[in-house]
Amino acid sequence: MGQFQFKFTDIFRVCRYGFSGRRIGLHLVGILLAYLLYEILVYLSLAITGGSEVNSYWDSYGLLPVPPFIATDLKPLTIGAMWFGIIIFASIFFLVSTMTSKITIEQLRGDIYFSVGDALKFIRHKWQTVIGSFLSLPFLILLLLMIPITVALFGRIPYIGKPLLIIASVFSPIAFFIGLLTAFIFVVFIASLFFMPAIVATTGSDAFETVYQLFSIVWNQPWRLVGYGILLFFLKLLLVPIWGIFCIAGIMIVLIPTFTLHTPFIQETIIIANEWLGGGLQKVIGFLFRDDAVLFGFDNTSQLPVPTISTVICVILLTVTLIGLASGVVAYLFSLASVGTTLIYVVIRKRLDENNLIEIIGIDGQIHTAPQHIGDE
């Protein structure tokens, strides 16, 4: 890898740095942990609700992580558990993304031996900053929105409400600027969903400094931010399907010999696994192949014999493998996102204030630049 140019061409480094066992593995563990917690919360809430809720949900969705805005016919307790599970997923994602960005920036600085353990030590000291930076922006938005909401509520008071609204209208110009500020903070909040982990990882800043840097790059470099983001999006659009194709090809190569010699057994296993996954497997196969009858072979599960213990064990192993396979594809997407936003932030900071985040200060007090062969893996 050549020396950093601090141009849009540096974003293409995501192709190399994003395809890393450490980074993909980190996100894979995070996804599986979040998925497990989500499913536990959902089925626990269904069991507490009682009745036939568990069986009904299992028949409809199985082990699919269904978001609350799709499964709208559920009880409030289950919907609440789903939203809480999404919050847990978001928290895990931001923490893991910060660890991934930290590994990336240290590799760019020449430390190719910066390990997952080192990243874990870093996040133990910075997890409050990550969560605090994320929560501070919605709090600011809510605080600003309380001003017009309070005025509107006072306007509902009998007799004195309308006079208060008339008085408040005098301050319309101020209210206009408050509205503009709220809209700008909302844009910064959207940017934080992508760049907040990269800022914390590359600068080691506290929550206040992180929020300040978010405001700075959005205000001073908006078009470069959008342009680089679009470039990263198209790179992900190209690379993730390729990785997905290789993953599918890998499992197909493994299954073909067994399927050829034990067709009825494998068909039975696939059908039951498809049921456990809420029909998701058949949808994917139907998207990839015109005819899925070769794999499934049966019209419905009533044609299947009673599954034996060996069949159930194979179904469990196949289901776990398929969940891991899908998670691996998503983990690669998240790895590209973490690495890409780190690269974008390094370039933008150099363009913004000539701050080279790849340079490190040694014990001699001198600035040292990463070597020409920046940590290939």
Strand order of the largest sheet: 1-2
Oligomer: single chain
Secondary-structure element series: HHHHHHHHHHHHHEE
Parts with pLDDT < 50 across at least 5 consecutive residues:
361-377
Q: From the helix content, strand content and strand pairing, which structural class follows?
A: mainly alpha
Q: What's the end-to-end separation, in Å?
A: 10 Å
Could you give the count of β-strands? 2
Number of helices: 13
Strand content: under 5%
Could you give the topology of this structure?
Layout (H helix, E strand, L loop, with lengths): L13 H4 L3 H29 L3 H9 L14 H33 L7 H39 L6 H9 L2 H32 L3 H14 L1 H40 L1 H14 L3 H9 L4 H4 L12 H45 L6 E2 L5 E2 L9
Antiparallel strand pairs: 1-2
Helix pairs in contact: 2-4, 2-13, 4-5, 4-7, 4-13, 5-6, 5-7, 5-8, 7-8, 7-13, 9-10, 9-13, 10-13
